[in-house]
Specification:
Structural class: mainly beta
Strand order of the largest sheet: 1-2-3-4-7-8
Radius of gyration: 20 Å
CATH architecture of one domain: Beta Barrel
Number of strands: 31
Helix content: under 10%
Shape: globular
Distance between the termini: 29 Å
Mean pLDDT: 91
Strand content: over 45%
Largest sheet: 6 strands, antiparallel
CATH topology of one domain: Lipocalin
Low-confidence stretches: none
Length: 353
């Protein structure tokens, strides 16, 4: 499930499933797809539904990310077959494509576009600031963003590369760029910081080429952060990880700081902090300055497995969603072991300096 809040008045959530979906049986909406998706807007004060918008497909559709715009929401995800929202239809090139939709605060579709080509492509993150919309995801050789080709690192490789793009308020492409290597990259999300830079978070294996930089993961995988200037030129990129298997799951912008949540095995150095995973696998939250240096980090540690499943900016800091399988601690605050190891969850609010 993805969610976002618009102007303090509405909260949009995306539900995934087949057949009838909704917040209560008497008002469920039938969606098409295995699965299909339903965008629901709730009143931020009362939680009552304002409107519901189906995302139908003759095959499947998944919503990965929702961001707030000046006048509604932007929604990103992936689909196969034909995707229909209201009276607008887009069709995937072959296996799957990404999509981006702009939805007004009253639940009307402003526009819907597809991003992809003949391979398996997806949009995994969207962000908005003012009239600017940032999009990030993965693609196979032959994909494009509204007619602009996305160069693959190796046209014959079966593995996915990453892309980032900026759209304007009407859904037109402003710029796009790609990055990758001989192994597959994954994308956790994208954000736009206070200075207007577009920042992508994800995970990389082997050597990943970003702009003019060649970054080599130290272990089986590392987290990755990459900055693009407002004009679309590559700024800089860093890897985040130790000598084991590490990655990034979520990203948010807090002023000029970029905050990410990730996972690690063994040990990981984050600025002045060295974290040690208590149960073999742990989670972390780290804030980076605009040059890519860690300025603050804290551990989510316990005897089981911990994950940061989402991040959102709040006044002065961040709200982090944490999943855990056993008892855990967040910088001294204790999380009790869940009765069901698959159901441990907590919300953590922290300041960012």
């Amino acid at each position: 499930m993805a969610a976002s809040q618009a102007g303090g008045a509405l909260i949009a959530i995306a539900l995934s499933g087949s057949g009838a979906l909704g917040d209560r049986p008497e008002s469920d909406v039938s969606v098409r797809g295995e699965p299909g998706a339903l965008l629901v807007a709730l009143d931020a004060g009362s939680g009552k539904p304002r409107w519901r918008l189906p995302f139908d497909s003759n095959e499947w559709v998944l919503v990965a990310s929702i961001a707030t715009t000046n006048d509604g929401f932007v929604v990103g995800g992936s689909f196969s077959g034909s995707l229909r929202v209201k009276n607008t239809v887009v069709t995937s090139g072959a296996k799957s494509d990404g999509f981006v939709a702009k939805v007004t605060a009253t639940g009307e579709l402003a526009w819907l576009i597809r991003i992809g080509g003949p391979g398996a492509d997806a949009v995994q993150g969207v962000a908005a600031r003012g009239e600017r919309i940032a999009v990030a995801g993965t693609f196979a050789a032959g994909a494009d963003v509204l007619g602009a080709p996305l160069p693959a690192f190796d046209e014959k490789s079966p593995f996915a590369d990453g892309f980032v793009a900026e759209l304007d308020a009407k859904g037109a492409r402003t710029w796009s760029a790609s990055f990758g290597g001989k192994e597959a990259e994954t994308i956790a999300g994208v954000t736009i910081d206070e200075r207007g830079s577009v920042v992508v978070a994800g995970s990389a294996r082997g050597v990943v080429h970003v702009g003019g930089l060649d970054l080599e993961a130290r272990g089986g995988a590392d987290g990755m952060l990459a900055w693009w200037n407002p004009d679309g030129s590559a700024a800089h990129a860093v890897l985040v990880g130790g000598t084991d298997f590490d990655g990034v799951r979520a990203i948010a912008a807090v002023g000029e700081r970029i905050v990410v949540g990730g996972f690690y095995s063994g040990t990981i150095d984050l600025g002045a902090e060295q974290l040690v995973a208590g149960g073999g696998d742990g989670a972390f939250v780290a804030a980076f300055d605009r040059r890519g240096a860690v300025v603050h980090a804290f551990d989510v540690a316990g005897a089981g497995r911990e994950e940061i499943v989402g991040l959102a900016a709040v006044p002065g800091g961040i709200l982090a969603g944490v999943a855990h399988t056993a008892s855990a601690s967040v910088t001294g605050a204790e999380l009790a072991a869940p009765k069901d190891p698959m159901a441990g969850a907590a919300l953590v609010i922290r300041g960012v300096r």
